Amino acid sequence: MSEIRKTALAAKAAQRALSQATEEEKNRALYMISDAIEDSREKILSANAEDVRAARESGMSESLIDRLSLNEKRIHDMAQGVREVAELDDPTGKILEEIRRPNGLLIKKVSCPIGVIGIIYEARPNVTAEAASLTLKSGNAVVLRGSASALKSNIALTEVMRDALNKSSISPDVIALVRDVSHEGAKELMTMNDALDLLIPRGGAGLINRVVKESTVPVIRTGVGNCHVYIDSTADKNTAIELTVNSKTGRPSTCNAAETLLISKDYPDITGVLSALTNAGVTLHGCSKTCEIYPDALPATEEDYEKEYLCLEMCVKIVSGIDEAIEHISRYGTGHTELIITSSDENAERFMNEVDAASVNFNASTRFTDGGQFGFGAEMGISTQKLHARGPIGLKELTIYKYKVYGSGQVRK
Amino acid sequence: MSEIRKTALAAKAAQRALSQATEEEKNRALYMISDAIEDSREKILSANAEDVRAARESGMSESLIDRLSLNEKRIHDMAQGVREVAELDDPTGKILEEIRRPNGLLIKKVSCPIGVIGIIYEARPNVTAEAASLTLKSGNAVVLRGSASALKSNIALTEVMRDALNKSSISPDVIALVRDVSHEGAKELMTMNDALDLLIPRGGAGLINRVVKESTVPVIRTGVGNCHVYIDSTADKNTAIELTVNSKTGRPSTCNAAETLLISKDYPDITGVLSALTNAGVTLHGCSKTCEIYPDALPATEEDYEKEYLCLEMCVKIVSGIDEAIEHISRYGTGHTELIITSSDENAERFMNEVDAASVNFNASTRFTDGGQFGFGAEMGISTQKLHARGPIGLKELTIYKYKVYGSGQVRK
What we know:
16 strands, 2 domains, globular, 43% helix, Aldehyde Dehydrogenase, Chain A, domain 2, 413 residues, Aldehyde Dehydrogenase, Chain A, domain 1, alpha/beta, four-stranded parallel sheet
């Protein structure tokens, strides 16, 4: 039996006991993990330093090295994050519905953990603690498969967390790290349907597409955000500028950043918005009408409309109105977050009803699509598929339900 | 562009309009479909007769021919089924949650259709009308891909339904039939992620496993039920006999039929239950202890415990108590329905909490796991996976949600 299979089956066995743990037991374990992370910062930092050194030698870009690197503050934040998960409400054991049938059967629909969740992720080692704490609190075991470049950091982190669990009532096997980071190992994990109930990829589009394509285990597709801002003819001028600039430049590398601006031809201050974007350092790729009235814009190509820039670049298209805006989004959107800026409640409702996305916003920045901003606490990513969960995947989205059917001898005729 | 791709993209375009239709418009369309099915019974029966003739010539078994065959009563039931779906509550547009954030944002979580749902199914032509009506009522488009043996019946049925829609306000393209029933066609459908949001296979284990394995579109796995009955030491004798016999023999070919009986060694009337099963015509495959005390039982093999018999055969294992029963179910169960028969509320709760299945029953037949019996009305199958929906897939389970975020110019700092 391969190391990966052994690890996953041990996680599965340990999850059965975890699913019966009380909220108090789970919280105690999370506080112990949090303390252990703070107390073991030297061990973690020294493992991370080795990863960073190797990454630098292999020529990794500075922005990726920044994502890989830990320091005292990041370790403190990680530990703090685990404590915050402990303080969130336990999502399991909730009675979601009670049905009394004419034959006397009482059916309770009760929330419960999903089971064993695999996470395939790229360089950021803080995902390791984040994923482990969210899954533990929701009663799930986790099988972590990070990237080769972060392997030493991930080993140190999971050792610290598992050692902490060893002193708790919860088996350390609920936090499992796959040390075989080969492509074959990933493939094995993606097809281990008898051990894994769910796979969540976290990383770039290449990783996510590979997992969606190769996995036979159910997947939640996350984090591809080609988000649009539509400025309607009646939009307030200041609101239009503030929301567009915040949606684009607040943090351009995130999936909830806006990538294309659609403006109604009847909006009276098109150049005002475009100048504000230019002043904020954004390079604009415009349709032919945009380029006519705003010569600083470069001509946009078909690929520009499809692109998730993730940097200070943006497409601009002048449209005939809300219909063309909805049409454009339906064609190019990825179902993440779409914003209308308008003074018309009617157009806002129409946009929010007809646009098919996880979050449809009316006069509120696209940047709000985030577990913390929604009030869910930490999250495991933003789902852009339409099965199970859409938008932020917080604790509740890491649960499913079972039906408890209470009878007194009923048979079906 | 292939026929399948054209069909699916037309369904996708039509679904956008359907998602905005009122409940009244959808119901009117469903009643028109129902009437059209009754009125077109001759067309449907004559197409079905051709399928049945070809199936008989190809040597199809009588039981499969029975599943393929339509008659006046089955057509009437089909039309009646469509009317019943019209009478169910519209599951879309429900406000599931309202969140008011400190910054003034109002976030409404609202139920909405999933989008385009593909159904890959085997011979029974009544699935065609059932799937089309459930998806239409929930605002989804459907792409139907039935088997080659039922192609003429399915063409006739979808023509009748689409003609009815032509007279309604809803585009006929929301009910699409794939006429290319080749394996390559199925593969194309299973990987059309830009047009399909969900695939539901309905049929035998072979079909379901193929779809789970090959599909890159999200799948709901349905209908594999290796269900267990556990008779605890304190079970009431009559209840034990009635529930076990009903669970096994009520309708042995369905996925909610029981396949293995686990009995506590301390249950005082083991042979009473086994005789009742024998008298009901059930062939028993027993563990060594069972064979000792009940010589009519054949010896059970490892494969017997894994098997979904779907006929009048059953495994019997005498266990030391509830722990061994839970252990056995955890190893062999498929997460469908598991039953404990006991007089102990404590053991019942323990069983229902620790056994990981869609439905965990206490003194109620396994046969109740069914959309109609749960009070959901018609259903699209029983999900045995743990993502999105577990148990009966009724109208509500064919929806997802979106977040409508109402702001007044909020930006994220």
